[in-house]
Specification:
The complex is a heterodimer of chains A (461) and B (282). Chain A has 461 residues and is an alpha+beta fold. Chain A is built from 10 helices and 20 strands. Chain A folds into 4 domains: 4-98, no CATH class; 112-170 and 412-460, 2-Layer Sandwich (TATA-Binding Protein); 174-197 and 387-404; 198-386, no CATH class. In chain A, the strands form 4 sheets. In chain A, strands 4, 9, 10, 11, 17 and 18 form a 6-stranded antiparallel sheet that branches. A 5-stranded antiparallel sheet of chain A has the order 1-20-19-3-2, with helices on one face. A 5-stranded antiparallel sheet of chain A has the order 12-13-14-15-16, with no helix packed on it. In chain A, helix 2 (14-33) runs antiparallel to helix 5 (79-98), helix 5 packs antiparallel against helix 8 and helix 7 (135-148) packs across helix 10. Chain B is mainly α. Chain B folds into 2 domains: 1-136, Up-down Bundle (Four Helix Bundle (Hemerythrin (Met), subunit A)); 145-282. In chain B, 77% of the residues lie in helices and 0% in strands. Chain B has 8 helices and no strands. In chain B, helix 1 (2-32) runs antiparallel to helix 4, helix 3 (85-107) packs antiparallel against helix 4 (111-129) and helix 4 crosses helix 5 (144-176). Classes of the chains: A alpha+beta (461), B mainly alpha (282). Chains A and B meet through helix 2, strand 7, strand 10 and helix 9 of A and helix 6, helix 7 and helix 8 of B.
């Protein structure tokens, strides 16, 4: 039977924190080494099984099933990872609560007078003596030295002995709190983004058209024009989209979106992400009425005879699904002319109704409809997202950096001294915090050296 | 300018190589003299004197030439030299040599410095096998300030962790041979200083990366393999700090984490070759 206090003790231990950090490190290592299902894929069972068959299995063979059952293809959303992070958060919270008492003690400074044995119990302790100096003079000398090293000194005079308690950087404890609470803030920010935000990684707009953003934003985006520039060696140099944001049909903002320069409107950000060819098309019925006139983006890839061509689709009001394939973009197409477009028309039951080739500007009858390929253009692909958690992430990061710097560069130091009469002079016993406190030993040595120098100096006068 | 870049790159390699050679020669020559019985076996952590200044000078020359390489390359390309593995390797080597000099000045011992120089030389030799022709920046990298700050933080963090690795390796070797405790304490102290410098910069490196990813890739974190590898490295050193500050891990156990941590640094650095992803600029 595990008791509440036992659990509390477990969750307030640094040992558990170390184990959890190790587990999270191990799982992250798996995440870096093992191919991971792209975001969104693991959430959709059909897409996921397709991914397993076509991407994971060729690489991992028989292991695929085992790794998939262990959820290791989506390790950062697996119960292992999320569980370990949740336990670590609990661990951090309980550790922080458990140390609140210590926090108060560090700030106040703790007891001044301690048992005699205490002064020589630490691995770092020292003794000094002077044959002539009275205890009160020795105590004021020690106080002076401590203060010179930026210590706060508190003294107590009891039973003929003088006790000193000195400390430095007592606000250090807040560094630990800052560092740890920032991690909790970070996780809160991540969760906020997940639950209150949205992300559409492929928001596609052909040139000259308007598309609704959706997600209840009431926004739509129009792509005025898109341009891509290249270096002489063919490497991409710049992609830019000229866009207009509409809110409720009214123009709200206008500007350029480039890689590294997203556009922001009302907390919604538009990022330049990808691009490709588009084709504008007009479809008339047999009565000559225009059923469809729009630009169609061709973001997909159609492979035939080892040639990859841009492809896209749209639906007609009569429920026909129309597929378009354009010529190869970067080189000359072996089969198709530059102004041609392959077209396939499917019924609702995915039966091929008609297929053919469209040439720019030439109307063509297909399945009782008249198709005209008006002109070729480009589409731009954006990532649209709203993440209300992001500001919290930056605050958390700032706190983390501050916390880490305080902990590493302004460590808390505590030194205790007991001055007692010894013959005509006095004896000073000194100790610092335990040896675990990094540099405590060096720090005490520094103080002692300083005191010795002072003692010698006084004798020389 | 291109001529100056090549010249200083070769000169940097020669300086770093020579400094290693001198250390080894001095070590061998000293070794041949019979050691007096009462000298503790850890004595070869030589104090800075005589030949030590030659090594110091060579390391400083190495830093000077590496700086020259980086500066002339910046002039040629018009941006910080941080866009492909050739440039990253030189930047990493610069971080190590700079950190070595700092540790040399702080602790006056050369041997840790020599391990750093070995790693730096290996990186320079590696860089020498890579295509050095400057390539134009792809759109995602065209953010001069963040590119420079992100990679500069990596230079300092990785350089410091390399020093931690050197101190840890020596600690393990020397503790086996029962060296004097004071010598071991110096090494232990050095390794902690390395983390003290490296960890905040590693944190900064990740923060700057996240900030940049948020504007360039549309998300502050995408579990890109290189991101994940840097998280692994960060976690290892976070673990080290907790073990050390809260549970008093020192000496051998602490040294072991630092060696694993350095392996994680190398894994993060060379990650581009192991996995693909958003960071795979070649």
């Amino acid at each position: 039977m595990v008791s509440i206090s036992g659990l509390w003790r477990l969750f307030s231990s640094v040992r558990l924190a170390l184990c959890l950090i190790l587990v999270i490190t191990g799982l992250s290592l798996i995440g870096a080494l093992l191919i991971q299902a792209p975001s969104g894929v693991a959430a959709d069972p059909t897409v996921y099984s397709y991914w397993l068959q076509n991407v994971a299995e060729p690489k991992l063979g028989l292991w695929t099933k085992v790794l998939s059952a262990l959820r290791l293809f989506d390790v950062f959303h697996s119960p292992w990872f999320l569980g370990a992070v949740a336990l670590l958060v609990l661990n951090i919270l309980i550790c922080s609560l458990n140390r609140l008492g210590r926090l108060r003690m560090v700030l106040a400074g703790g007891p001044i007078k301690l048992a005699e044995e205490f002064y020589s119990a630490s691995a770092s302790h020292a003794a000094l003596s002077d044959a002539k100096m009275t205890p009160s003079a020795a105590s004021s000398l020690s106080t002076r030295i401590f203060r010179r090293h930026h210590y706060r000194v508190r003294t107590a005079n009891l039973e003929g002995k003088i006790y000193l308690a000195a400390d430095k950087n007592r606000y250090f404890v807040f560094g630990t709190y800052l560092g740890h609470l920032s991690l909790i803030l970070l996780i809160t920010g991540v969760l906020m983004g997940g639950f209150m935000g949205f992300r559409n990684t492929s928001f596609i707009i052909p040139e000259g058209t308007v598309r609704e953003v959706g997600y209840g934003t009431g926004l739509s985006l129009r792509l005025e024009s898109f341009s891509d520039e290249y270096y002489p060696d063919g490497m991409p140099k710049d992609y830019r989209s000229q866009v207009v944001v509409y809110q409720g049909g009214q123009e709200a903002k206008r500007g350029t979106i480039r890689v590294n320069y997203p556009m922001s409107y009302n907390g919604i950000r538009f990022y330049q992400s990808f691009f490709g060819p588009a084709a504008s098309l007009q479809v008339k019925n047999s009565a000559g009425e225009v059923l469809y006139q729009d630009s169609v983006a061709l973001p997909e890839i159609s492979t035939s005879m080892y040639v990859e061509r841009p492809a896209g689709s749209f639906s007609l009001p009569n429920d026909y699904e129309v597929y378009l394939v354009s010529p190869v973009t970067n080189t000359t197409d072996p089969v198709m002319a530059d102004n041609d477009l392959l077209i396939e028309i499917y019924s609702q039951q995915m039966k091929l109704v008609a297929s053919g080739k469209l040439s720019a500007g030439v109307p063509q009858k297909l399945a009782d409809l008249e198709f005209t390929y008006l002109e070729k253009g480009k589409f731009s692909g954006f990532q649209v997202s709203r993440n209300p958690g992001t500001p919290l992430i930056w605050v958390a990061f700032a706190l983390l950096l501050t916390g880490v710097s305080i902990v590493l560069y302004f460590p808390n130091r505590q030194v205790w001294a007991m001055v007692s009469p010894a013959g005509a002079g006095s004896r000073i016993l000194l100790r610092s915090t335990s040896a675990r406190n990094i540099g405590a030993n060096t720090e005490l040595t520094r103080l002692v050296k300083s005191m010795e120098a002072e003692l010698r100096g006084r004798l020389n006068i | 300018m291109a001529g100056l870049e090549t010249f200083s790159f070769v000169a940097a390699m020669a300086s770093v190589g020579l400094s290693i050679l001198v250390t080894l020669l001095v070590y061998i020559i000293k070794r041949r003299r019979p050691m007096p019985e009462d000298v503790p076996p850890g004595e070869s952590i030589a104090r800075l004197k005589g030949w030590g200044y030659v090594e110091l000078g060579l390391a400083a020359m190495g830093l000077l030439f590496l700086t020259l390489t980086i500066v002339s390359r910046t002039v040629i390309t018009g941006h910080g030299p941080f866009s492909n593995m050739y440039e990253f390797s030189i930047a990493f080597a610069w971080g190590i040599v700079a950190m070595s000099l700092f540790f040399l000045w702080r602790y006056r011992t050369q041997i840790v410095n020599t391990i750093g120089s070995l790693v730096a030389l290996a990186l320079l030799i590696f860089a020498n096998t890579l295509p050095s022709k400057p390539v134009p920046l792809v759109p995602a990298l065209q953010q001069s300030f963040l590119l420079s700050a992100h990679v500069a933080a990596a230079m300092i963090a990785y350089g410091a962790f390399t020093m931690g690795f050197g101190a840890a390796i020596l600690y393990l070797i020397r503790s086996r041979r029962a060296a004097s405790t004071s010598k071991l304490e110096v090494l232990d102290d050095m390794s902690y200083l390395a983390v003290k410098i490296g960890f905040p910069f590693m944190t900064l490196l990740i923060v700057l990366g996240a900030f940049w990813a948020d504007i360039a890739w549309g998300s502050y974190w995408s579990w890109d393999p290189k991101e994940t590898a840097s998280l692994v490295t960060w976690l290892l050193f976070a673990g080290y700090l907790h073990a050390r500050l809260m549970r008093g891990w020192q000496g051998r156990r602490a040294a072991l984490i630092l060696i694993i941590g350095f392996a994680a640094v190398l894994f993060t650095f060379f990650g581009n070759y192991i996995f693909s992803g958003l960071h795979s600029y070649q």
